[in-house]
Design brief:
Strand content: 15-25%
Order of helices and strands: HEHEEHEHHEHH
Strand order of the largest sheet: 2-3-5-1-4
Distance between the termini: 173 Å
Helix content: 55-70%
Number of helices: 7
Radius of gyration: 44 Å
Number of strands: 5
Shape: flat
Length: about 270
């Protein structure tokens, strides 16, 4: 009978413990269920990030011969105005046998192809025609992402700074903010430079005209004469400068020569 009594008590206690544990387990499961749902929801959420258009840096370098420098220059000027470009560098000169003109133009990238086609009209042969297109989209995205991260980090430090009480903490946070601000400005500068190169293409144009043989000889002779004149002038200037640099020695030499000559005259008079 005692064994039966003990077994009954044990069964009652076990059943009671199970009844007490069931609500606790249900509470834990109910608390865990929303978090799991939230995780699944976060996985399913795919925020539509704005698509960044392709970033291309376009450049061109052209060299060709022309029979009329002025007409070609006017044609290029007209193409620049038509395509809303601007001249970055403009130079001209003469060589032994040629007259040349070099122009560097910055033109909006959307007008790049039209500008190249316009200035190519009438050109029978290009000695050099190099056109490059560099894709910097990945570099642009990387800079943009890093810049956003730095700005968020700066906002966090500013929030911490508002709650800081100790002077040491305030100084340390301000130091970190200063470092982050420098990094942000550096990234902004790189991004601005990249956007500038993408938005405006660079075109280098070199065109020239061959001079007749007689004119080229005259030009060569005249250049040699002018070079000789300049060389003589510089040599004369160097001579005067060298004399000026040794003027104390010249004075001493003149004084000694004067006394020696005077002494020699005295000796002649005495004899």
């Amino acid at each position: 009978m005692r064994y039966i009594f003990f077994l009954s008590v044990i069964l009652l206690v076990f059943c009671g413990c199970n009844k007490q544990m069931e609500p606790e387990m249900m509470a834990i499961e109910s608390a865990a269920a929303p978090s799991a749902a939230n995780k699944n929801a976060d996985k399913n959420i795919n925020p539509a990030s704005p698509e960044i258009p392709q970033k291309i840096i376009k450049q061109a370098s052209l060299r060709f011969e022309t029979n009329d420098l002025e007409e070609t220059y006017n044609q290029i000027q007209s193409a620049i105005k038509k395509n809303q470009g601007k001249i970055q560098n403009d130079s001209e000169g003469k060589d032994y046998g040629t007259i040349f003109h070099n122009i560097t133009v910055r033109v909006p990238s959307q007008n790049f192809d039209n500008f190249i086609n316009t200035i190519s009209k009438g050109v029978s042969y290009f000695e050099r025609k190099e056109i490059t297109a560099e894709d910097v989209t990945e570099q642009y995205i990387d800079l943009t992402t890093r810049l956003k991260t730095k700005r968020k980090l700066e906002e966090r430090y500013l929030q911490i700074l508002q709650k800081a009480v100790k002077i040491s903490e305030i100084l340390e946070i301000e130091k970190q903010i200063s470092i982050i601000r420098e990094e942000i400005e550096a990234k902004e500068g790189q991004l601005k430079y990249l956007e500038s190169r993408v938005s405006e293409s660079t075109v280098t144009i070199e065109f020239y005209k061959n001079l007749p043989e007689q004119e080229a000889v005259q030009l060569s002779y005249g250049s040699k004469v002018w070079t000789a004149v300049k060389s003589g002038f510089f040599s004369l200037s160097s001579f005067f400068i060298s004399i000026i640099s040794v003027w104390p020695f010249v004075i001493i030499f003149c004084v000694l020569a004067y006394f020696i000559r005077k002494r020699l005259k005295r000796k002649k008079q005495q004899s």
